[in-house]
Amino acid sequence: MTEVKSDASRIEAEIERLEAIQRELRAAEAEFAHRTRQVGDGLERLGGADPRLEGEMRALARNLKRNEAESKDLAGKLEKLKIQLAGIGGGTSAGCG
User: Fold this and answer.
1) Inside any domain, residue 93
2) Rg of the Cα trace of the chain?
3) Are 46 and 53 in contact (CB under 8 A)?
4) What are the C-alpha distances in Å from 95 to residues 14, 55, 89?
5) How far is the first Cα of the chain from the last one, in angstroms, to the nearest whole number?
6) How many domains does the chain have?
């Protein structure tokens, strides 16, 4: 029984850690999206021709794509952990988030 509680505690701690990362990724995504709008507006004002802004837009697009992939991977890990936790009868974290 103690081993099951230990496993549940370990899984709950990992879920909390991953959910914290997920919140950070959401905040970063919002920042990238906001900056993308700003750069897009700047490019529009300049007629779409500014190498510096075009480069920044490409970098932002890469960051958003990477962020999306990390978020998807993280969501899969969280789902597996929550299923695992439910399977051992543990925790209040299952189903949260």
Assistant:
1) no
2) 20
3) yes
4) 14, 41, 13
5) 27
6) 1
Identify the domain containing residue 77 by its residue range. 2-85
With a CB cutoff of 8 Å and minimum separation 6, the contacts of 46 are 53
DSSP helix/strand/coil, 57: helix
Task: Please check whether residue 70 lies inside any domain of the structure.
Answer: yes
Question: Among 25-39, 48-62, 80-94, which is the least confidently predicted range?
Answer: 80-94
SS3 94: coil
User: What's this model's pTM, rounded to 2 decimal places?
Assistant: 0.77
Q: What tokens were used for 16?
A: 């909390």
* 7-32 residue pLDDT tens: 999 999 999 999 999 999 999 999 99
Please work out, in degrees rounded to the nearest 5, the angle formed at the alpha carbon of residue 67 by the alpha carbons of 66 and 71: 120
Q: How far apart are CA 91 and CA 93, in angstroms?
A: 5
Is residue 94 over pLDDT 50?
no
* Per-residue pLDDT at 4: 74
Length of the chain: 97
Q: Is residue 68 situated within a structural domain? A: yes
